[in-house]
Amino acid sequence: xxxxxxxxxxxxxxxxxxxxxxxxxxxxxxIPQGQRVSLIGSNxxxxxxxxxxxxxxxxPDAGEISLHGKRITGLAPRQIAGMGIARSFQIPQLYKELxxxxxxxxxxxxxxxxxxxxxxxxxAATIARSAELLERFGLTSQSDRLVSELPGGVRKLLDIALAxxxxxxxxxxxxxxxxxxxxxxxxxxxxxxxxLEQEAMTVLFVEHDMDIVQRYxxxxxxxxxxRVIADGTPDAVLDNIDxxxxxxxxxxxxxx
Amino acid sequence: MxxxxxxxxxxxxxxxxxxxxxxxxxxxAAMPAWLTFxxxxxxxxxxxxxxxxxxxxxxxxxxxxxxxxxxxGYTAALAFGxxxxxxxxxxxxGGGLAAALVASPFAYLIARYRGIFFAMxxxxxxxxxxxxxxxxxxxxxxxxxxxxxxxxFGLQADDAWRGYVGxxxxxxxxxxxxxxxxxxxxxxxGLVALAARDNEIRVEYLGRSVRTxxxxxxxxxxxxxxxxGALAVMALGHIEPNFSYWTTSGEFVFVAILAGHHSVLAVFxxxxxxxxxxxxxxxxxxxxxxxxxxxxxxxxIRFLPRGIGSxxxxxRKQGERQGEPQ
Lengths: 256, 326
Hints:
heterodimer; A: alpha/beta; Rossmann fold; 2 domains; 6-stranded mixed beta sheet; 10 helices; globular; B: mainly alpha; two-stranded antiparallel sheet; 13 helices; 75% helix; 1% strand
């Protein structure tokens, strides 16, 4: 029998209910290091709930989640972040009153050993690291702009760049292309995936666009009513009749 | 990695701060007694408001800083009267330490709350202290008690220089606290506090505890406020429970709002403005001076919603973004 230590992220029988609504029903998943996994499902299927349980925002009612064999179930978000899980958000969670560079400086200051009462926030090391990450995400020209002035796509990229400052072992991206125009989706995901190439991290991304899923995921996990209804390669999952019926809607079109 | 260029902003802050202290000390020698007293009180009270600004930068406002103001003041007065400690600097630091000690047990509890709940809980603490002070005859009850003349470096100033020496001690200590506050505001910790004000969730997801950050700011603000209380009682020569009354706390909040949360200098300018408005209003319309104060605050909120400090902080930020030291 394989042990959870082999996997970057492991969920065993994870359950969550909100009153009568089952948001997660005995979810069991093992995700190896370095895999790019897309979580798909219609609205309310339980994808974001699953992501929120991994990152500690929601505590599961039952089951266990572990990171490289270490139990993280029920820990606070900051403790989980400290263990190596970072995330971006469907609605980018940024510091709107600060500049792009200041946002990066905050993220770097939050790392262990960087919080100081006297050392300037924008010291040489922070500026260099911020500049390197901003360049990777094509945001160098935006570094002096206030976040409140940025367009949606740029905010999404910055949100992911902030998550990367900790060099996490597992990165969770919650709908990285939502709110981004159709023309911008692929260039944006190209930038993100290129930026992630330099890091040997496991990536889970929640996504509704099946073209994005097919192009960027190694593996797809489909959710429906809090359950995993399919798990495998993108082609295998998207060809699954249940997925076509409940997630992509293609079965209904064919039936018509 | 720590490079020598990282020390430049620190040195600049230190140099500007020391220059300001020196100029204030020189100017004080030429000032009339009423003005040195007014500025002494503005500096002492400004310290308490600086503590509120420190908390405001983390997204919370204390409406009960009268508590630490009173603890600092009573500690200094009692240490002077009962323990025979007369050195002004020792009494000021002692007042700060006592206030931080009193605030510490509540810090982690109060840091759970935000917005009006934080403000009301801090107000409740200050009013509990007010009640205790009023009902404590050994502390002078509602009348309080007097404090004698302090010394500095073992020397006591004669009558002619008494006011100036008090002013010099207050301005120097306040100046050093202001320098430290500016360094703290510009530090990585200061930036994270500012970020927590903007988006607490993100700070937690980046691995930092906002509650710990606010709790430590609460204790720091208490230390600064306690020092302010000790310096104020040394200037006034008298302490009473009103130091902890809610209207006193309200004045500190008034100054903090007037100043905004970006500039340390603005806090002391706002505190001086309050003292000037209070002095002249109570002289010319004694029964309606609060009205003048309220109208003044309305005008500032209307035209400078981010406080007096926004007048020059916006330029400073723009200069920083363009890489020019301002």
